[in-house]
Amino acid sequence: MVAGVLLWWNYREIFGRGSTRRAPRWVAIVLAAAALLASTGTTVQAIRIGHSGATAVWSDDMGTPAPAGNKD
Prior knowledge:
There is one protein chain. The protein is mostly helical. The protein is 67% helix and 0% strand. The chain has helices at 2-15, 25-58. It is rod-shaped, with a radius of gyration of 24 Å.
């Protein structure tokens, strides 16, 4: 979403659309903060997913069948 807004914003500034007015500084700050927040969230989720997968693969109780008489 942030990348799409940045693309639109840059396209609008490059090709002018009849206006030579520059964007306010707060717009750039808000877009940069949104990009930072989105990238941080993506990184955190990738780490959590990787840790969960590694735990599932390397845990000792994975793949061992339950005792024959145990119905729990």
